[in-house]
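User: Assemble these into one structure.

Assistant: Restating your components, then the assembled model:
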Amino acid sequence: MSSLERTLRDGTTMPAIGVGTFGSDRYSPAEVAKGVETALGIGYRLVDCAAVYGNEDLIGDVLASAIAGGLPREELFVMSKVWNDHHAPDRVRASVEKSLSHLRLDHLDACFIHWPFPNSHGRGAGVDDRDPHARPYNHADFMRTWAALEELVDEGLVRHAGLSNVTVPKLQRILPDCGIQPSLTEIEHHPTLQQGELFQHLVDHGIQVVGYSPLGSPSRPERDRTPDDLVDMDSPAVVEIAESRGVSRARVCVAWAINRGVVPIPFSVKEHQLRDLFEATRLRLTPEELHALRATDRNNRLIKGQVFLWEGAGSWLDLWDVDGTIPGWHGYGS
Ligand SMILES: NC(=O)c1ccc[n+]([C@@H]2O[C@H](COP(=O)([O-])OP(=O)(O)OC[C@H]3O[C@@H](n4cnc5c(N)ncnc54)[C@H](OP(=O)(O)O)[C@@H]3O)[C@@H](O)[C@H]2O)c1
C-alpha cells in the first residue's frame, strides 16, 4: 500500500491517490464495482463515488466484503456527492442517507455538493441535451444546501464537507458564509487545465484539492467532446517525459498531480492500468520535467458541463464565471 497521505485542515489524513467510479457511457455498474474491488486489492484506499453514478449499491457490496474480509474501515476513505436534484436541506439528508445505505457504511469520509447548479426533476439531462430544469447558481439557496451538509458533519454521518466544480468568484461568496469550512474541493485538474488561480485560492484557504479527470478523461461521454479537446496523455510534453523515463503517459499525468499536492482520482476498471497508476506515488518529477508540464497549460476544459446550462444562459463558459463575475448574479439571493 502507498504510504503517501495528505493532511486535512483538522489534522486527519487521506490517501494521496484514489480511484474514480464514473463509468461514463462505457462501463456498467458491475464493471465499475469490480474495478473498485481490483483497486482495493492493489492498495487503493480512497474511492470517489457519487449518487448520480448509479453504482453505489454494487460498490457497497465490494466495500462490505472487503471489510468483512479484514480490511479495517478506518483505512478506507470513501467519498460521495449530492446531485443537482438534491439541493434542498431535506434532500441533502436523503441523498447522504441513501448513499450510506447503498455503500453499506455508517459515515462518509467526505461528501461534496456535486455541482453548484440545482435542478428540480431528477437527472433531467439526456446525453446530448441541456437539462431542462437546470437553474443558475443561487447563493442563498446554495448556502442552505451547504448548511444541511454541515448538519450531517455535526451528526457524524459525514466527516468532511466538500465543494466541487466551483470557481474563484463563487468561493469568494461561499467561504465567508460557511459555518464549517470545506475540507476539500473536487475540480477538473490535469496538465492542460491547471486552474492556477483557483488552485492557489483553495491552497490559501487550507482546502485540499482533489483532481478529477487527471489523464484527460479519454472515456468521457460524447456530450463533453469538442474538436479542440486534447487528452493529456497525448500532450507532447507528457509523451516526451514518459518516453525518456520508460513509464506510461498516464503515470506521468498522475505523478504531476501528486507532485503538485493534488489528490488525483483516475478512473479505470483494468487491473494493469490501476497498477500502473498506483505506481505514480513513487515517481518524483524533476524541476525540468515539472517546468515542461507547467508549460502545457492551455485551459483545456474537458468536462464543460453544458448540460447544466439554464434557459437563457449563453455558452457553457457561463458555468465557469470566466469574466470573474457570476452571470445573472443580481437578484439571486443575498
Ligand atoms: N466532481 C465531478 O464533477 C467529476 C467529474 C468527472 C469525473 N469525476 C471523478 O473523477 C474520476 C476520473 O475522471 P475521468 O474518468 O473523467 O477521467 P480520467 O481518470 O482522466 O480517465 C479515465 C480513462 O483513462 C484511461 N486510463 C486509465 N488508466 C490508464 C492507464 N494506466 N493507461 C492508459 N489509459 C488509462 C481509461 O480509458 P479506457 O477505459 O478506454 O481504457 C479510463 O477510462 C471519475 O471516475 C469520477 O470519479 C468527478
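The chain is about 35% helix and 15% strand.
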